[in-house]
Design a protein that fits this description.
By secondary structure, the protein is mainly alpha-helical. Helix content is 71%, strand content 0%.
């Protein structure tokens, strides 16, 4: 896969982004923890709030990272950014229209979800560090690859099967992002394609919403 940028240029985008937006990375991790908390602490609006949090992350990735930063080395980022923003609107629409109920159960869905959530927030940066991608030259949480894995982890906790329209952009990114990362030696992004495959199989096995 021929990319229009080098690995050094790619990692330097992370540096520029991380320095420019610091310390918002901690806010995103906090919001991720809130989303997980809402799965267990049910309220009349918890299902919508979970989707709103995930949507906010996709809006951010599309507008700020892709269009604001990544587009400086890859013009395709305008397309990626637009798709990410559309995904944000789809999640918001779904939240208002007919939000699925989110719940944790001691089954294959709960087990897979925990693994993906832990990978996105904890294991991903550890693998990155030992692969030579230390902060600020690292894709922090709130950037596309770890956040897509987190999205799959949260959406796996939906009680019902989610429609393809809601998950098509994350699934496409799991393929596109992994393909680019593989070419650049971003080892931690192996979890991206794995999470997409796991989500697709398990989501298909659920009953329709």
């Amino acid at each position: 896969m021929k990319l229009p940028f080098t690995v050094d240029q790619f990692l330097d985008i992370f540096r520029k982004y991380n320095i420019a937006v610091y310390p918002i990375q901690f806010l995103f991790i906090f919001l991720a923890c809130v989303a997980v908390f809402l799965v267990f602490k049910k309220s009349s609006n918890s299902n919508r709030l979970i989707l709103f949090i995930v949507a906010a992350l996709w809006f951010w990735m599309g507008a700020i990272y892709h269009i604001g930063f990544f587009s400086t080395i890859n013009k395709a980022a305008y397309i990626f950014g637009s798709l990410f923003i559309i995904e944000g609107f789809l999640l918001v629409y779904f939240a208002f229209r007919k939000p699925s109920s989110f719940a944790f159960h001691l089954n294959i869905y709960g087990f897979a979800s925990v693994l993906l959530l832990l990978y996105a927030i904890v294991i991903y940066p550890i693998i990155g560090h030992f692969s030579g991608h230390s902060y600020p030259f690292a894709p922090t949480f709130g950037l596309p690859c770890p956040t897509t894995i987190f999205t799959f982890g949260i959406l796996l906790l939906s009680v019902h099967r989610l429609p393809l329209l809601i998950v098509i952009v994350p699934l496409l990114w799991s393929i596109i992002g992994f393909s680019a990362a593989f070419s650049l030696g971003i080892n931690e992004d192996t979890g991206l394609i794995v999470s997409g495959v796991v989500f697709t199989i398990l989501n298909y096995k659920k009953a329709h919403l």
